[in-house]
Design brief:
18 helices, disordered C terminus, disordered N terminus, Growth Hormone, Chain: A, 403 residues
């Protein structure tokens, strides 16, 4: 992928990866609309609900780093790895749809986490190499694809749940997954076929990995990003529960709110990414995460209706949009030739950090009430903002991108 690329090839890669990311997040976000129905059907406790998300996080976190190493080593076959990611998730949801009990749901969700983790290291590593001169913007546009999927899925799935049982909704997603997997494999094959394989042996990749994990600045970023991820996973787990069980919203209503949480990021994400390329990652991340902490805390007082709607919309400006900037920050620190490995390391760390958080929040909710989960998240976000503020950082260097 280091060879010179025509501008058209860069645009094709960007467009294809944005579209594929939308499909991945369609699958991911649709589950959180279905989660309250699963909890009702299987009579799950708050800790068990948190465990579903946590189990998915652990499985995905373990796979991210190997996926990054494979992507950096065998770049010519990246389109097939991306296709496997989409098809894998569709099949995993079929397994959840047939699950007779809670342990089988956990197994299915672990497979979902693995499938999701196969996407991000190769996709984001590709964009970081091809768009090295505008890395923050390119990764944010890729994140906008996620926002499109995150926004459309809850509305569609919420509507389907009015007419269908949750198990049937999960099973229906398999065939579209196969179609999109084939489209990615064939549509992007030419982009990766033009690239050269890494000539260095696998031992050099492991040496590069040791260099990454020994980098103090990168370790500090992993800690800050992991704390932020803990809060994020708690919100997507317990906001639907709060809306459904405490406020009495229908599945369609829950879907609308989850869509609003992501819809606002479609506009803010490219703007924040562009701004981080110009002024630096920290000046964007620290105030944004601090403001998000305040907005999450205000949920406990927001009344159903316009107050809650405005609050969730404001949260949506930052909720998913900041992840791409954290990733660009990590790549700035790591340097060239380990882009996918760096993505795998950051995503894996985020997932593992986030795995325990919904379970902790479930214990808090079980002992108090659902709203206390938002107090817990607000505290986590403040801690993450502080960690990013203490991270030594420089403005992104100007890099000439391959054309």
């Amino acid at each position: 992928m280091e060879d010179a690329k025509p501008a058209a090839g860069r645009r094709v890669a960007l467009g294809g990866l944005i579209a594929g990311h939308a499909v991945i997040h369609w699958y991911q976000q649709s589950f959180f609309v279905i989660l309250p129905e699963i909890a009702r059907s299987l009579s799950l406790s708050p800790v068990q609900i948190g465990g579903i998300t946590g189990f998915r996080q652990i499985a995905g976190g373990v796979v991210n780093l190997p996926a990054g190493l494979l992507s950096d080593t065998f770049r010519r076959y990246t389109s097939f790895l991306l296709a496997i990611s989409i098809a894998w998730i569709g099949l995993a949801y079929v397994i959840v749809g047939f699950a007779p009990s809670y342990p089988f749901v956990l197994i299915g969700m672990a497979l979902v986490g693995i499938g999701s983790s196969l996407w991000h290291p190769p996709a984001m590593g590709t964009l970081a190499r091809l768009w090295a001169d505008r890395r923050g913007l390119a990764l944010s546009l890729h994140g906008t694809g996620a926002s499109i999927g995150d926004t459309a899925a809850p509305i569609a799935v919420g509507a389907l749940l009015v007419a269908l049982e949750w198990r049937d909704v999960l099973k229906l997603g398999f065939l579209p997954g196969l179609f999109f997997a084939a489209a990615i494999a064939l549509g992007l094959r030419g982009i990766y076929a033009q690239g050269k394989e890494r000539k260095s042996p696998s031992g050099s990749h492991l040496r590069a990995l040791r260099g990454l994990v020994g980098n103090f600045r990168l370790l500090t970023l992993l800690l800050a990003g992991g704390i932020r991820a803990m809060g994020q996973m708690t919100i997507v787990t317990f906001l639907p529960i709060y809306l459904r069980e405490d406020l009495g919203y229908s599945s369609a209503g829950v879907g609308l709110y989850l869509s609003l949480l992501t819809f606002m990021g479609m506009g803010s994400q490219p703007v924040l990414g562009w701004l981080s390329d110009r002024v630096g990652r920290k000046p964007v991340l620290v105030p944004s995460i601090t403001l998000l902490s305040i907005l999450v805390f205000l949920i406990i007082w927001a009344k159903p209706g316009y107050q809650l709607t405005l609050l969730v919309a404001a949260m949506g400006l930052f909720f998913y949009a900041l992840g791409s900037i954290v990733m660009a920050f990590g790549m700035d620190i790591a340097g060239r030739d380990a882009e996918s490995t760096t993505v795998g390391l950051i995503f894996g760390s985020n997932l593992i950090f986030g795995a325990a958080s919904p379970v902790i929040a479930g214990a808090i909710v079980g002992a108090t009430e659902t709203r206390m989960a938002f107090v817990y998240v607000a505290a986590l976000q403040l801690l993450a903002a502080l960690a990013f503020a203490l991270l030594p950082a420089r403005r992104p260097a100007t890099v000439k991108a391959p054309m």
